Amino acid sequence: MSIPTPHQSLPLGGRHIVLGLSGGIACYKSAELVRELHKAGASVQVVMTEAAQAFITPVTMQALSGRPVATSQWDGREPNNMAHINLSRDADAILVAPASADFIAKLALGRADELLSLLCLARPIAQCPLLLAPAMNREMWAHPATRRNVHQVRADGATLFGPGAGDQACGEVGDGRMLEATELRDELIAFFQPKLLAGRRVLITAGPTFEAIDPVRGITNLSSGKMGFAIARAAQEAGALVTLVAGPVHLATPRHVRRIDVRSALQMHDAVLPLAARQDVFVATAAVADWRPASPADHKIKKDGSGAVPGFVMTENPDILAAVASLVPPPFCVGFAAESQDLARHAREKLVRKSVPLVVGNLGPATFGRDDNTLLLVDAEGERALATADKLSLARELVREIAQRLQAVA
Ligand code: C5P
Q1: Is the per-residue pLDDT at 4 higher than 80?
Q2: CATH 3.40.50.1950 domain extents, the chain
Q3: Among 3.90.550.10, 3.30.470.20, 3.40.50.10490, 3.40.50.1950, what is the CATH number of 16-192?
Q4: Residue 350 phi, psi dihedral angles, 5° rounding
Q5: Closest ligand 1 atom to Cα of 290
Q6: Residue 339 scores a pLDDT above 90
C-alpha cells in the first residue's frame, strides 16, 4: 500500500501528528483514523502503550501509518535513545485516541512510566498541543475521580475531543464512546483553523424553501444547501457559536452547530427573526421562494375529469434578509445573489436594495448541487472574485473576509 505524501492543499496538508493509543476497545477505530488523517494530508507517527497492544497490534498500525510504531522508551534504534524527546519535537499535535480513564489519570498526575505518558510530559507545551479522545465505560466517565482528572488535564492545557454518547462495547448506553474516526479527523481539522470568529454569534440560512400548494404538493427550487452548510462549518471551526436555519435538505449537520429545520419561507422568517438581534453576523444563503400560494388547499387537489386546471393566487413572501438588515443595530449582514447572468450588477443592486454591507454573487444554476463554486464579493469598496474551489475552502475564505470586516467596524 502506498502512503500518500502530505499535500499542502489538503486540510491537514503538511501536518505531522503523533497518534497515541492507550488501552481500550476503541483502538479498532484508531486504525481507520490513521487512514483518515492520511487522506486529509497528515503524516502520522503511532505510539502505543502496552495495554493498547492487547487490543490491536503494532503490525496493523505500522502498515497503515507507513512508519514503525514506537512502543518503548528503551528503544535502542533511536540514536540518542531519547524517543520521548524526539517524537514530539517535530509534531504539530499529539492526539491520544483512545485516551483511557487510566491514561487520563496518569496525565493528571504528571506520571511518565512508559513512552506515551512520558512524551506527553516532555512535549514543548507551547508548540505541541495535547489532544485527548476519551474512551471508556459511562460509569468510569461519570466517576468523580475521572471528572477530577479531566478537569485537571484541561487546566494543564489539554483539549478533549468528545467523548460521544451511545452504545458501548460493554452493552451499556451512555457517555464515554470514543468519537468515530471521521469525527476525530474533523475535530482535528477544526482545531488547526484560526479562531477568527472566537465567541461571535453567527446565524445562517441555507437550502431552498418549500411552499405548499396542497398537503402533498408544493413549489421549491434546486438549491442544495451545500454552500450554507459549508459556511456554518467554517464559522464553527473559526470559533463562532453557529445557528443554522435549514430548509428541506438532506445534509449532515456540521459538528457543534445548532440546527433548526424549517420548510416554508414564513417558517424560516419566524425562526430567524427572534434570534437575529442577538447575532454578530447573519449570512443569508437560503434560496427563499419569492412567492407562495396565498391559500394552500386543505386537501389534495383532485382532477375532476373535466380537463380544468387549478389556478393559484400567489402572495409575496417576507424578505428575511431585508428584515434582519433593518434591525437597530443590525448584525453584520451578508446576502447571496444567485444569478444566471450579469452577476456584478445584480449583486450590487441587492447590496443597495437590502441595505447590507456585503453581497456574495454566484452563478446560480451552474452551482446548485455542485461541490465547488466561484464567488464574487461585492461591497461598497468594490468587487473581489474568489477563484473556483470546493465550497468548504470558499466558505473559509468568506469567513476570513467577514472577520476582517467585523474588526474594521469594531
Ligand atoms: O431577494 P433576492 O432573491 O434577489 O436576494 C437574495 C438574497 O436575499 C439571499 O441572500 C437570500 O437568502 C435573501 N432572501 C431572503 N428572503 C427572501 C428572499 C431572499 O432572506 N424572501
Answers
A1: no
A2: 16-192
A3: 3.40.50.1950
A4: -70, -35
A5: 21
A6: no
Is any ligand 1 atom within 6 A of the Cβ of residue 317? Answer: yes
pTM assigned to the model:
0.93
Task: Provide the pLDDT for residue 374.
Answer: 87
Ligand 1 within 6 A of CB of 135: no
Confidence of residue 251 (pLDDT cuts 50, 70, 90): very high
Q: Is the pLDDT of residue 26 over 80?
A: yes
Q: Quickly count: other Cβ atoms within 10 Å of residue 37's Cβ.
A: 24
Cell matching residue 197: 470568529
Q: Is the C-beta atom of 271 inside 6 A of ligand 1? A: no
Q: Of 12, 96, 16, 3, which is closest to residue 48 (Cα–Cα)?
A: 96
Q: Measured in angstroms, how far is the CA atom of residue 339 from the centroid of ligand 1?
A: 12
pLDDT confidence of 80, banded at 50, 70, 90? confident
Q: How many CB atoms neighbour CB 147 within 10 A?
A: 11
- Res. 219: pLDDT tops 60: yes
Of 288, 320, 350, best ligand 1 pocket probe by most atoms within 8 Å of the beta carbon: 288
Is the minimum distance from the CB of 284 to ligand 1 under 6 angstroms?
Answer: yes
Which residue's alpha carbon is at the smallest distance from atom 17 of ligand 1?
319
* Nearest CA owner, ligand 1 atom 2: 337
Would you name the residues annotated as active-site residues? 170
Residues of the chain with CATH 3.40.50.10300: 201-293+312-409
* 321 C-beta closer than 6 A to ligand 1: yes
Confidence of residue 189 (pLDDT cuts 50, 70, 90): very high
What value, to the nearest 5°, has the Cα angle with vertex 161 and ends 160 and 166? 120
Q: Is 276 in the pocket of ligand 1 (CB under 6 A)?
A: no
CA 84 to each of CA 73, 87, 109, 111, 131: distance values in angstroms, whole numbers, following the listed order = 7, 6, 18, 13, 17
286 lines ligand 1 (CB under 6 A): yes
Pick the CATH number of 201-293+312-409 from 3.40.50.10300, 3.40.50.720, 3.30.450.40, 3.30.70.2740: 3.40.50.10300
The protein residue with its alpha carbon nearest to ligand 1, atom 9, reads 336
Backbone phi, psi, residue 398, to 5°: -65, -40
Between the CA atoms of 56, 59, 63 and 68, what dihedral angle is there, to the nearest 10 degrees? 110
Measure the CA–CA gap between 393 and 237, rounded to whole angstroms.
Answer: 12
- Of ligand 1's listed atoms, the one at least distance from the Cα of 337 is 6
Separation of 26 CA from ligand 1 center, angstroms? 46
